[in-house]
Structures are given as C-alpha cells and as structure tokens.
Design goal:
Helices cover 38% and strands 25% of the residues. By secondary structure, it is an alpha+beta fold. The structure holds adenosine-5'-diphosphate and the ligand N[C@@H](CCOP(=O)(O)O)C(=O)O. Ligand LJ64HWYM binds at residues 11-12, 17-18, 84-86, 128, 130-131, 168, 171-172, 245-246. Residues 58-139 form the GHMP kinase N-terminal domain.
Length: 293
C-alpha cells in the first residue's frame, strides 16, 4: 500500500485564469492505493458525503483509468469539495503520483499533470491543469498547453472559505466569452507583475498582480460577502485579494507571516457582515504531492 499527501491549491490568482496556480501548505487530501483487479473508491473526511465513489465520476478513478492502473483507492478529504481550493484536483494529483509509484511506471510530472487534468475534465467540463500542476509539482506554476513552468515561491497567505457552495462547472458558465482590448492590456500587466513577484518572493508585486477585471467580477456575484471580505483583508494589511480558483474561497496575500492572524480574522468578520459563516486558513506556498512508502 502507498500513501500520498496531496495539497490544496489556489488557481487563477486573478490575472492567470486557467494558467496560474499555487500549492498551499494546508489543507490536503491523503490518498492511499493498493493494487486490485479493478478500481474501487472509498471516501472519508470533509464533504465526503457529496463525492461520488463511482470511479468514472471520481477524479481519482478517472486518473486510474487514464494510467491503466487499477487500484483500491481510499481518499481522506482534507479539502472540502466545491471550495475553490482545488479539492477535486488534490485527489486527482494524489492518485496520479500514488499510482505511478505503485505500478512503477516512471511517468514524468508533465505526464502525471496531463492524466490528472483528465480527472478535472470529468467534474468541471474542462481539462484545466492550473490546480493539478501545483498539486503535483508544488510552488507557483504556469500551466500551458506546451508544458509547466514552476517557481519555488515563499509567501504568507490566508484563504477564507465561506459556507457557500460554488461548483467549478457553474462558475465557468459565468466567464465572459469575449474580452475588450483594455482588459487584455490590464491582465497582461498584472500577470507579468505577479510572475516577477513570485520569482522574487515579493508580496507587494504579487498582491498588485492579482488585479483583473473580467473573470473575477463576474464570479464575485456568486460569492456573497466577497466585497466585504476583500475590503476587510486590505484594511488589515493584505497586499491583494482575489477569488481562489472558481470560488467561493477567497485568497489574500500577506506581507509578513505575523499579519496572517489579523487578515484571517478580518476576512471572517467581512463575511459575517454579509450574513455568511466562514473559516480562514493561515497558510503559505507549499510543496507538491508527497509520497510515503
Ligand atoms: N475526489 C474528489 N474530490 C472532490 N470532489 C470530487 C472528487 N471526485 C469528484 N468530485 C466532484 O467534483 C466537484 C468538486 O470539484 P470542483 O467543483 O472543481 O470544486 P473544487 O474547487 O473544490 O475542486 C464535486 O461535484 C464533487 O462531487
Ligand atoms: N481555472 C479554473 C480553476 C478552478 O479551481 P477550483 O479550485 O475552483 O476547482 C477555473 O477558474 O474554472
């Protein structure tokens, strides 16, 4: 039997829709695999009652099919589904890394990212790799059709999870189909600023680089309390705030590790002002999936 800890991730980072992603140091899923004649899935932990155990519908089962690696798979969910924290991706990434080791396949990280992204396609309708790439590789990742670029960034972060469910599939429906040139110019400027900020571990540049005016405002409509939580985090010293992935999670970048407590409390109060319960994780950029033999 093999065990893999696969981290939560925050995708998009505002300006990098379907491209940027960040591994978080916590929370995480724990995936255990054992060889079996056919794939079966058992799920426990956060929100497990909402997660299908049919291998064709579970992201980990889809990965087993993609890798032609049947197994008895147990997933202990640390990452609540439909959170915007890459819950479905954590299981897919964990399964990819675990099954690759279990069957001694020797696939590269990029091949594992491709297999795990097929799991994402089953739940969200698109094989976006921006969550599975950091969940496998760790750090800050840029996922493009021609490959993955990664930087081992170090930044204090807060993610606040309101008690609202937003499925990635639904949140993709509200993404505008066309973009004005002014918005393209703003997004390119932000994305470049953010990427430089990640390579310098500079929270001010990363915070400024989250700014984007196309996808985030459309999705903010689905997250009651987003505006209040964002303003509260900025007032408490965050350098930038955006929706994590497809939401409803909200990501704040902090200047110093000690700022996280204040920013986390401010975000929970911001949601409370809008009548929404929320919990906040004080976290940081973390490593990719970790294998325990
Ligand atoms: N192993 C899994 N872990 C979490 N969610 C899964 C898994 N397999 C399938 N799903 C389904 O994926 C959806 C959650 O994924 P998604 O909407 O992308 O949210 P998240 O941002 O949390 O990844 C839910 O409908 C859930 O039932
Ligand atoms: N790029 C995707 C990311 C979805 O992330 P998730 O954590 O909400 O699954 C999107 O924005 O649709």
């Amino acid at each position: 039997m093999l065990t893999v800890r696969a981290p939560a991730t925050s995708a998009n980072l505002g300006s990098g829709f379907d491209v940027f992603g960040l591994a978080l140091s916590a929370p995480a899923d724990v995936v255990r695999v054992e060889k079996a004649p056919e794939t079966t899935i058992e799920v426990t932990g956060a929100g497990s009652q909402y997660i299908p155990t049919d291998p064709a519908k579970n992201t980990a089962g889809v990965v087993a099919q993609e890798l032609d690696a049947p197994a008895r798979i147990h997933i202990d969910k640390g990452v609540r589904p439909a959170s915007g924290l890459g819950s479905s991706a954590a299981s897919a990434a964990g399964a990819a890394v675990a099954l690759n080791a279990l069957y001694d396949r020797g696939h590269s990280d990029e091949e594992l990212v491709r297999a795990a992204a097929e799991g994402e396609a089953v739940v969200s309708g698109a094989a976006h790799a921006d969550n599975v790439a950091p969940a496998i590789v760790g750090g800050f990742t840029i996922a493009r059709a021609d490959g993955i670029t990664s930087v081992d960034a170090s930044l204090p972060l807060v993610v606040c999870l309101p008690d609202i469910v937003v499925s990635t599939r639904d949140a993709r429906e509200v993404v505008p189909e066309t973009v004005a040139m002014d918005d393209v110019v703003e997004t390119v400027g932000s994305a470049a600023t953010l990427a430089v900020g990640m390579s310098r571990d500079d929270p001010s540049l990363v915070g400024r680089g989250l700014q984007e005016s196309v996808v985030t405002p459309a999705r903010a409509e689905l997250v009651r309390g987003y505006d209040e939580a964002k303003q509260a985090a900025l007032d408490a010293g965050a350098t930038g705030v955006t929706i994590s992935g497809a939401g409803p999670g909200v990501l704040a970048v902090c200047r110093r590790p000690d700022d996280r407590r204040r920013v986390a409390a401010a975000m929970v109060s911001g949601f409370d002002e809008a009548g929404v319960d929320a919990r906040a994780y004080q976290t940081a950029v973390g490593d990719g999936a970790e294998l325990f033999r």
